[in-house]
Amino acid sequence: MHLFSRKKEGAAAPKAEKKDPLEIFDFSGDNAIVIEDVDLYYGDFQALKKINMVVPKLQITAMIGPSGCGKSTLIKTLNRMNDLVEGCRVEGRIEIGGVDIYDRRLDLSALRKNVGMVFQKPNPFPMSVYDNIAYGPRTFGVRSRGALDEIVERSLRQAAMWDELKDRLNKSAMGLSGGQQQRLCIARALAVGPQILLMDEPTSALDPISTGKIEELCGELKKDVTIVMVTHNMQQAARISDKTGFFLLGELIEFGNTDDVFSAPKHPETERYITGRFG
Amino acid sequence: MEATSAQEKKPVRHGSKAKPGEVSARVLFTACACLSIVAVFGIIGYILYGSIPAFREIGFFNFLFGSTWTPTYDHFGILPMLVNSIVVTLGAALIGGTVGVFTAIFLAFWCPDRLHLKYNGKNAFLQKTVALINKINLRTIFDQIIKILAGIPSIVYGLFGLEVVVNLLSNVGGDGKGILACSILLAVMILPTVTSLTKNALDAVPKQYYEGALAMGNTKAQAVFRVVVPAARSGIISALILGIGRAIGEAMAVVWVSGNRVLFPSGLFSYIRTMTTNIVMEMGYASGLHRSALIATGLVLLVMVLIITLSLNLVPKEFKGKRGEKVLRGEGAQPVAFRKKGHLSMAAAIFGMVCAALVGIILATIVIYILVQGVGCLTADFLFGEQSVATPTLGPAFLATLELIGITLVIALPLGICAAIYLNEYSKKGSKFVKVIRTFIDALAGVPSIVFGLFGNILFVTALGLRYSVLAGAFTMVLIVLPTIIRSAEEALYAVPMPLREASYGLGAGKVRTIFKIVLPSAFPGIATASILAIGRIIGESAALIFTMGTSFNFSGSPAGAASSLAVLLYVCAGEGLFMDQAYALAVILLGLTLILNLIVYFIERHVRKKR
Ligand SMILES: Nc1ncnc2c1ncn2[C@@H]1O[C@H](COP(=O)(O)OP(=O)(O)OP(=O)(O)O)[C@@H](O)[C@H]1O
Ligand SMILES: [Mg+2]
User: Fold this and answer.
1) Which of A62, A133, B31, B543 is such that its CA lies 20 to 30 A from the CA of B249?
2) Touching check for A87 and chain B: CB below 8 Å?
3) ipTM of the complex
4) Using an 8 Å Cβ cutoff, are A226 and A55 in contact?
5) Which atom of ligand 1 is nearest to the CA of A120?
6) Which CATH number fits domain B59-374: 1.10.3720.10, 3.40.50.620, 2.40.70.10, 3.30.830.10?
């Protein structure tokens, strides 16, 4: 599935094992992400308080909670998109694939290659469908047309879009519908072969049919990638996730198997939130 | 609350492996951003250096406060010219400021989107005309009028002043030249600046202020003049200050209408000479102490303009809105009428309409006059004639202007874009350093053309030995267009949506790749606009080129050779009155180019707006 590592193996197999700087992460264990005692501050404001959480490999982990409780903030610390926010400080330890991702020596590109992200609003680049998907691989030096074609096709197939889009690869991505754009963004994220996919309310801007398609897609994808998803939609969390974390005012109130959290929440706040949401 | 205890817990760890490419790109962008600082200090330094002989031999005091200027007797006192510059500038601020501010008020509050003319007759042609007029968006038209007025080269205003304004004024007093003529021309020149900045300031006033006043029973005019205009005060003052800075440094628009006598002002029609025209008239043949005295005149001008520009930072931003806040609290606005008032406000509103109409008439007059006079002068001899030393032809000036544009843009665009990238993509919000850089960019933008000309003459022509040449002109132009390019490129970068950058970073791309592959391509239309604005500025420039590129009629074609640009050629042709036909032909061409460039910008901007 992960084309880069495969290619590298093919080319450099006989040589002595030299570690690929892009593949410093080791996902052989059961846990994809380990979050320990994480505090996060935007200037003086503490947005995350002592978060402890272990995200299991090849499962879908949902994060729920009321608006402003820090879900987006936490998901953005996982691929360090928070670095873009001025005055944002992270304390504690986050380990992904056995690597402390806030280590000074960390290669940010390598992190983000392995931990992809899909945003709330579809944000395709104003380029062709093909170039959108090829953007990531090109970032990592894939130049040959053949290899790129292969990646584009594979990613689109993975995102169940190949049949839909194979005839309009050279058309601008801006002309796609909102749902298509979002799935294209998923395909684009998949093109660099991530082990983890972060999704921040990926369906909140979409219609029910597109939402259904993306949920279905996530179910397929979890064979290959670990998914962490923020959602405001309780049914969605209940339908597709394996684990659920409930956040309130920057704290992780409850975290466990989705079935347990929804059927027998341990904390009264969780229960109130879920039942309130279900109506 | 727990922030302190948490801080003690563990050191903050951030940061990541620094990639050499990213680091050197950052250094490059920062360096380009600092270029404006270097340029401003360089200009001050060289002008100061060139002035030293004058101050040493004449004495600073005698120079500044001496009242006779007779170079043949080594009398170099600039006081009359200093006073004249100030007087005509104040006159311009008074006329242009009033018209500009009231025009802006009219545009912001009363200008209808469309006219609703009615025509019930049967004439099919008239019916169509009326329908067409009703379709035109008036605001867009005024917007364009102001942009075109801003784009018309100073030298074309100068020609218009010499041939039209002076003639009209001669019916009133004297032969028309002198203080009033200069003030009027400078007023027209600062109109676009004052109008557009005032309109921005008015647009920025929160709508609630206006609505609050209306809700208290104010008429529309009362609400506008008693609440919104006072709330926009700081912006309007800034607009006037910028206008004053422009007026005091303008040379070419007034060079032919001042009367050119070094006398103290004694009436509306007394002949004068300003500091700028003094430099333009004499720099060409001055040498030794005389030359140094002219450079020192430039220094005085530069210092005044820098003080004016820097004083912009002193305009308090806070007092904006105090009155509006009062209205929101229910004080300040006119209390519900016990006695119906508001006639004054209504009169002011009508005056605004008159001013706006005047602005339209001014542009129309200039355009029509130049076309009527000039189109017939576009003879084949002038347009396609062989170049010669004795008679002006279009060919060499056209080629020289093209080369000038090419060389200037090749240097200025990358520098300006890189500086904009630093300011928009790298700098931290509210950083002191960025504030300093912006102040210097503003300062550079405020430096008068003629001072750029002096600087280019001292550094490129003389010190670096480039002589009068397209190259020397281009290097000078780079500094002139740099602020324009930086500002509009920055605006273009700012308009690129953040999510596009996030998507790119999210895929593991670094900053440099994100900037070059995602941000810059998305900002392309804006950057194209920046280049076109720069081209307009280059085509229209004359004061800075006379003493860097030269004024010859012929041109070898090599960038190392001297040549007149189109605008400079117009100055030379009309300057001695020998080639007025050619001057008019050039005015038509310059005006045409201005209109075309404006049109291109208009279509690019419309295209972008549609896409959003
Ligand atoms: N860049 C920022 N600077 C300062 N404060 C921020 C910033 N981003 C988020 N916050 C604050 O941090 C808290 C958590 O925000 P976050 O966006 O993570 O919430 P969320 O759970 O994703 O909410 P929503 O469901 O509305 O998306 C909020 O109080 C928010 O105001
Ligand atoms: Mg969020």
Assistant:
1) B31
2) no
3) 0.82
4) yes
5) 27
6) 1.10.3720.10
